[in-house]
Design a protein that fits this description.
With 92 residues, the chain is mostly helical. The protein is built from 4 helices and no strands. It has helices at residues 2-28, 33-60, 64-75, 79-89.
């Protein structure tokens, strides 16, 4: 579970950097390089997060709805942070 939370934090931060820093640099400053770099970083972390969520589902016998929520959290800004808080409240 610790790996899921750690990767979730990194994935959430990478998505925010992509949306808040890299995208404005691309469209307002005309510099597409940060988007290329951060989109790959986000993609790798997102895939790792999805893998860790599936591993946690198998290990802790999660229902498929919880796994779906974890997958949804990966693509929403602040989603992994909110999902992590929700997991802590569920004592998982």
């Amino acid at each position: 579970m610790g790996r899921l939370r750690l990767i979730g934090f990194a994935e959430g931060v990478s998505l925010l950097v992509l949306l808040v820093i890299a995208m404005p640099l691309k469209y307002w400053a005309g510099n597409p390089i940060p988007v290329k770099i951060w989109s790959w970083i986000y993609l790798i972390l997102c895939l790792q997060y999805l893998y860790q969520a599936y591993t946690a589902k198998e290990e802790y016998n999660w229902p498929y709805t919880r796994l779906f929520i974890a997958f949804l959290a990966a693509i929403l800004p602040f989603g992994t942070f909110i999902f992590d808080i929700w997991l802590k409240k569920q004592n998982v």
